[in-house]
Amino acid sequence: MAVTINGKEIAEDVVSKVKLSAAKLIEGTGITPGIAVVIVGEDPASQVYVASKGKKARECGFHSEQHTLPAETSEEDLVTLVEKLNADPLIHGILVQLPLPKHIDSGRIIQTISPDKDVDGFHFINVGKLGTGELDTAFVPCTPAGSMLLIDRVLGRDLSGLNAVVVGRSNIVGKPMFNLLLAHNATVTIAHSKTKDLAALCRTADILVAAVGRPQMIKADWVKPGATIIDVGINRIPAPERGEGKTRLVGDVDFADAATVAAAVTPVPGGVGPMTIAMLMANTLVAAYRSAGKTPPRF
Ligand SMILES: NC(=O)c1ccc[n+]([C@@H]2O[C@H](COP(=O)([O-])OP(=O)(O)OC[C@H]3O[C@@H](n4cnc5c(N)ncnc54)[C@H](OP(=O)(O)O)[C@@H]3O)[C@@H](O)[C@H]2O)c1
């Protein structure tokens, strides 16, 4: 039976290190790491994410600002706000909560964020740095960065000789995950909806990362014995056993089934999810250290 990778505990470790390092920076330079989270509109899920990011930032000892704009905000007004935050010395990390309302070009907004404050790691400069292995100066998107840290805790930093398969090729999870695994010397294959015989491909993986958005798609017979599985998926499914109309969260991996074959698996919830917000704090801290001309801690 596989070991359950405790993302909650590892995320708490990361946050403790962020807190200590933030206190050190404040004491040594007088600079308090600052994060600005921008939200446009009233999407309830986005409101919850933004509130939890603000809470975590305050817990880390950061200066934290939330800018809540009405759904009808114009693209120009949002660009103006981002430019203002780019120039604000109290702010080291800027996060614009996605999705944005349809009339706003999210690509333009993301490219307006200064690459030095792009703690989500979506700016082309940071995407390019990750793609060329410039990890010391890049910002890496938080979910893949957190997933990589979980792999690191199970298998160590050097993945030489190991085969990794990433299922999903999105810009926010699959592709950066591919580049991170490659940077850590794994032999990486990226799969997607057009991949032939996905199950057979997954069975070659010593490290299997699922970022698909299909509830419990990956079963035990897709898993190589002894594999490490990182389940990025978050899917809500009906849970009539909990009462009428109730739901529960599951990943892209059938946890109980896959755990009979794998060596280590992340649960959903409690795996990758808590790592994402912890890595946002880590990226903001790193941004503040860099702006102060100091060497940031490694996570
Ligand atoms: N834990 C976290 O903090 C966190 C953060 C971000 C996302 N997530 C979750 O991670 C999952 C993926 O997110 P995302 O933003 O990367 O999703 P996305 O943009 O929808 O991408 C999904 C990827 O999965 C591929 N795919 C879809 N169906 C497939 C199938 N049947 N077989 C093989 N590949 C298939 C797609 O292939 P094509 O490219 O060919 O269409 C696409 O590349 C979602 O459940 C999301 O909620 C979690």
TrEMBL record:
One of its GO terms (molecular function) is methenyltetrahydrofolate cyclohydrolase activity. It catalyses: (6R)-5,10-methylene-5,6,7,8-tetrahydrofolate + NADP(+) = (6R)-5,10-methenyltetrahydrofolate + NADPH; (6R)-5,10-methenyltetrahydrofolate + H2O = (6R)-10-formyltetrahydrofolate + H(+). SUPFAM superfamilies: Aminoacid dehydrogenase-like, N-terminal domain, NAD(P)-binding Rossmann-fold domains. The keyword Zinc-finger does not apply. Pathway: One-carbon metabolism; tetrahydrofolate interconversion. The gene is folD. Gene3D superfamilies: Leucine Dehydrogenase, chain A, domain 1, NAD(P)-binding Rossmann-like Domain. The lineage of its organism: Bacteria, Pseudomonadati, Pseudomonadota, Alphaproteobacteria, Hyphomicrobiales. It comes from the Bacteria. InterPro entries: Aminoacid_DH-like_N_sf, NAD(P)-bd_dom_sf, THF_DH/CycHdrlase, THF_DH/CycHdrlase_cat_dom, THF_DH/CycHdrlase_CS, THF_DH/CycHdrlase_NAD-bd_dom. The keyword Amino-acid biosynthesis applies. NADP(+) binds at residues 168-170, 234. NCBIfam families: PRK14186.1, PRK14188.1. Homodimer. This is Bifunctional protein FolD.
